[in-house]
TrEMBL record:
PROSITE patterns assigned: C2
Stated name of the protein: C2 domain-containing protein
Subcellular location: Membrane
Subcellular location, principal: membrane
Membrane is among the record's keywords: yes
One family name in Pfam for this protein: PRT_C
Source organism of the structure: Papaver somniferum
Entries under InterPro entries matching the protein: C2_dom (IPR000008), C2_domain_sf (IPR035892), C2B_MCTP_PRT_plant (IPR047257), C2C_MCTP_PRT_plant (IPR047258), C2D_MCTP_PRT_plant (IPR047255), MCTP_C (IPR013583), QUIRKY-like (IPR047259)
Residue ranges constituting the C2 domain according to the UniProt record: 1-111, 251-371, 409-529, 575-699
Segments passing through the bilayer: 828-858, 943-972
UniProt topology in membrane: Multi-pass membrane protein
Amino acid sequence: MSKLVVEVLDASDLMPKDGNGSASPFVEVDFDHQRQRTQTKYKDINPSWSEQLVFNVADPKNLPNTTVDVVVYNDQKGNHHKNFLGRVRISGISVPLSESEAAIQRYPLEKRGIFSNIRGDIALKVYAICDPSYSAAPMHFEGVGVVEPQKLEEIHNKKLEEEVKNDAGKKKKKKEKERRTFHSIGTTNFHTAPPPSFSGFGFESGKPVTTERRSDFARVGQSTAMHMQFPGQPEFGLVETSPPVAARMGYRGRYKTATTYDLVEQMHYLYVNVVKARDLPSMDLTGSLDPYVEVKLGNYKGVTKYLEKNQNPVWGRIFAFSRERLQSNLVEVVLKDKDFGKDDFVGRVAFDLSEVPVRVPPDSPLAPEWYKLEDKNGVKVKGEVMLAVWMGTQADESFPDAWHSDAHSVNVENLSNTRSQVYFSPKLCYLRIHIIEAQDLVPSDRGRNPNTFVRIQLGNQLRITRPSPNHSVNPIWNEELMFVASEQMDDRIIITVEDRTAPDKHEILGVLALPVYAATQRHDHRLVDPKWFNLEKHSSAKEDEEKKEVRFSSKIHLRLTLDLGYHVLDEATHYSSDLQPSAKHLKKPSIGVLEIGILSARNLLPMKASDGRATDAYCVAKYANKWIRTRTILDTLAPRWNEQYTWEVYDPCTVITIGVFDNCHLNGSKEDQSKDKRIGKVRIRLSTLETDRVYIHYYPLLVLQPGLKKTGEIQLALRFTCTAWVNMVNLYSKPLLPKMHYSQPISVHHLDWLRHQAMQIVAARLSRSEPPLRREAIEYMLDVDYHMWSLRRSKANFNRIMSLLSGVMAIGRWLNDICMWRNPVTTCLVHILFVILVCYPELILPTTFLYLFFIGIWNYRFRPRQPPHMDAKLSHADRAHPDELDEEFDTFPTSRPPDLVRIRYDRLRSVAGRIQTVAGDLATQGERLQAILSWRDPRATAIFIIFSLIWAIILYVTPFQVVAILLGIYMLRHPRFRSRMPSVPFNFFKRLPAKSDMLL
């Protein structure tokens, strides 16, 4: 029998009904004379149920004619009365026939009558299961056991009777019985794990709690504000998929024509190219005509601009209608005359979709033709229109610039914000300015020695030198400053020499303005000859002074160079996508091609729920200096882009970043000041991909602010193709960055400042494109705030170090087990191997490398089969305290109240104290090593040097193999010959002095 499944997820902002600003809501669902209800959430106006209600569908053919009534009530405990909180009616015609087609939708609650006072919304997922063999997953109630879906209503009614009969003295016992864990349809696994809590960097294990692990976020049904410290959470792993893309289908049959667009599913569109018209009749009394064209296909209508008083207009507009949404077999091209009242009909041309030709790239574009206009009765009238109509795919070159039917609600002015586009970052290079000295400065007070410094400004970048150590009119600085310059070298460098006459008062002694191209280009570390420049007086009458011949002026000695041998970092070095130098002739040859197909997304959160809309999602991908932006799919939680892009690869040890955003610039000027919302991003390192293999996975989208939320999943197809194997293998022996970074390195502090300036230049340049790539998207992709303090990230890095040290500790435990004879067979084999290697030392290195070879071959079976993704567990995002995340995303300087800042400061001191202790212990061990021969402890040093002399004599006399074998046998001796007390060398080392007693 067919089933109707209604998943009641959560509700928000319900109307309080108990007089105390709260409510106790439950949901009642009525379908085809079947009624079921959820549990009651006491004192909660933002409840989360996450329950499935399953109904029988007697006649699946009659499902479109039925209605699902969802009513939210307030449960007045102890009474038989319930308050109405809102209702939702869902037509059966909108119910999908499978779970995969269903999506979580938020419905605003409707009033029952005119005088109802209702507010809030409810999240539901409704779908039908037509498979007769379908059976919903059993639902588990604490204290009840496993219950089949058909008994769910009986259990609910029984629970309601118990709630009414029990008196107030049994509240606690009743609440314990009332807790339920609901399982969604699909495979669920259970495991027992302690909830992690933190104290500094350490873990404190708590009482085991039963939690549910799920592989699909769509089956979770948690509220959008779900945090990871609660049970019943989704996993954040990858989900491998097999969509019907040509790269996976082997190019069989019809897929053979899709070899150039083979990583995405083909999406078919009806294209209508409205080129121009001629010989149009006059419609107004004045004999003029203001023509425009309407392209109508069912309920979709595309309109061109109207052209005033033009009987031979030219539009050049292309319209694209998705074949999946075609609502008619006839497409009409109607030409009208714009008028103040009702627009006049001029003529029409109609096409039957069955007669429309199919174009398959790389065929040439379809040539437009002249068509005679017809009236409403099909009679030819005066005038012709030039059109081209064809069926194509998203691989058509007309696709990016076409007007799409799914964007019919967007204003013409904002239509460009929905289109896909390719961008390129500006070419950047480092500008190095060496300020050497100045001569013949003229201060206003001739009797004092000026305290001079130099201020340099390039665009928004400002740097100031240190004051000159010699206070005179001929100061010397000898200081280098670096800036980031873009490819537009017409920017001007403003150099100002100033005298600090008072703590807050400066006097300008001279100004120099130079274009960036005046600097000398260099590609290596060889010095460029400095030059003397005339300083101009700071005056408002500069033009008059320029006309006069310069007889005397102050001078400044500078060395200006454009260092093209560096790579200008605009990303964090840990996941940079480009490592090429600025100079074109220094760049490495290409080693391959990266192809990425952005297929779709699912289970996105409704980012515009307050406006009654879902999400207007688009994707941004960045690799090297090429950025791409997909088209915006409007008002859906499961967008399908199916767009494919290609990048040249110059280094495999680079990272591509893909971000998903909600477009907030679609509905006019009121949103001009708004920002596109982050949905999540994915990073993939190319070196982790196998060549010529197609990876198609769903990647989780995670957002941290204000708490960790899984905002959906994005489906990506990746393929890395190597075209130069020798060059790629050779790159593993080359340094990551260009030679200049090593021959003349830049300090870490300056590199961070320059990276920030480079990001600002890139963001400013791309935001001036059309359509603009917004600054908020660029900053999110480039991690502009990565350098800020984060307690969560510090914990993550600490645990990364501990996981690395765990390998060393595992080797130590293995050696200890051998020495303690835990496995006598293994210990005997180690004895034999040790004696062989000592007797034949030339076998040590070959044996070591042979072992490494076998270990690598053994680990091949366990190699990763999936590309890397954002790991919430590794990032400690799933366990971070909300206050830690609030501190991480706080502004700089802070905008939080002083009491909260003081608490955070105390916490930081506690964590820093632990780090300080660990650093002090490491320093102590190193200082003890130094103290062995430094005579800090004269008795210890005397003992050690006498011991060293004795051992030197013994080793001169005794063969090395004998000493090594005796020492090894001593280390591997049986436990019965061992003492529980620490060894003599250990005791000697622990008694050595360190400098810790000298610290204040």
